[in-house]
Amino acid sequence: MTALTALPAWQDMLAQAGRLKSIDLRAAFAADPARAERYSLAACGMLLDYSKNRIDDAGLASLFALARATGVEARRAALLGGEKINATEGRAVLHTALRAERSAVVEVDGENVVPEVHAVLDRMAAFADGVRSGGWKGHDGRAITDVVNIGIGGSDLGPFMACEALRDYGASNLRMHFVSTVDGWQLASVLERLDPATTLFIVASKTFTTQETLTNARAARAWLVAAAGSEAAVARHFVAVSTNAEAVSAFGIDLANMFGFWNWVGGRYSLWSAIGLPILLYIGPDHFRALQAGARAMDRHFAEAPLERNLPVILALLGIWYINGMGAATQLISPYNQPLHRLPAYLQQLDMESNGKSVRLDGARCDYHTGPVIWGEPGINGQHAYYQLLHQGTELVPIDFIAALGNPRSPAEHHTILLANFLAQTEALMRGKNEAEVRAELAGQGIKGEALEALVPHKVFDGNRPTNTLLLDALDPATLGSLIALYEHKVFVQGAVWGVNSYDQWGVELGKQLARTIEAELRGDAPVTRHDASTNRLIEYARKALKR
Ligand code: G6Q
Q1: Which of 37, 128, 299, 373 is the most exposed place for a label (fewest CB within 10 A)?
Q2: For ligand 1, what atom is nearest to the CA of residue 151?
Q3: Confidence of residue 548 (pLDDT cuts 50, 70, 90)
């Protein structure tokens, strides 16, 4: 037994979940007219209705008791106080300091980091003003029309997601592009549409050693220099975002064009830092500040609201309820607003890289499940694709339904249909359709006898499929900031209960190490023998194609 599974609070939570696994939610709503109100919570420009979950007061109480027994509150204080809670890397975890007010004090090793955070933000804002107004000129004196962010993982997903989500706030004179993969197809397909003289590249890499990013950055620089006819053009068309000034300099980017951040910013938590430069360029400094203010509001809510009225805590505990108490292996993120189409991918990294761990901070192996598989697409497309499984499949899939009420660019005709579907799905998943209802419906269609009986089992919906409904007042910078921070803190709380380090990612290292060896073998001619038979053979097979 680990320190977690030995806890009476853990055992109690499991027992409660066992009791509520087969709750009849329809009956629960009928018996308690206040259920929806009691299990709803509004804060930071959003309403969470979590009443369509397999919960009751005693079940929830067991979850809050578990959070207290696992020291979530003390760990939250350690996170927000700048303690080095990323123990395996000896680092503080301070994305909250990146959005702290100018007057705030957040210390790392006895030093207040807030002034340097704001110094970089001010430089970013000044740079963005220049690019957005056309004051920053390309090498031939023309203004920038296209910005290409070259980065991967945490240096891509957040900025890409936020720029898409906030398209309604984007500068009309700037087009944003994101190049992440080392598949040269992606860079080529972006560059073929661009004019080098009006293109700005942001090379975004915390370490500035990431192979994919540097390979793309070198290719982009060669493309620019070939077109401009001079290396001097690099200074007008390349900026870097990194913690590694030496490597930025060695790459040939003037440090005057570098925006820094710090090792206490994790990649997947970095969009608030200089990694957010594409967002700031696109939506402008004021909207970027609003994005940060929204996150800060959620930070405050997370820090101050009692656990029982705390949005990230509730979302986190409901996740644990299904993963550990009811055997769910996945969590679907179902945003209905099209601009949120990259949110599932963003949350996939945030959650899976943070809590996809099987060893506890104390070094013991987890004897319980941790982070789920996060997946998703815009929900309305999902309805016409995989929702079949959600309604009638054998897997239990908890779902977060997310929609913004305000949607100025979508005509009322469209938005009403969108919201009707959004609301209908959570109702359908909760209430299902029982045999009696199916029989009555079929009879009403004139079907009877054997034909009716044969159809009945196929048309039954079990219901009791759990969903959270998150209604955003609007899809604006502040609410998006709050939404992102909500999930950041949700992931934190789950990691705290599970006792894992949510802030390292050693699991991405092994593949990178092996790729270096294989790259050399693909380029060479010697027989490949050092791997297993499968890998040896596949390398030689691929090598033949590369050499053709
Ligand atoms: C995020 C991860 C990872 C990282 C990328 C890019 O938490 O650490 O996704 O962001 O590997 O790393 P660089 O920014 O160093 O290029």
Answers
A1: 37
A2: 16
A3: confident
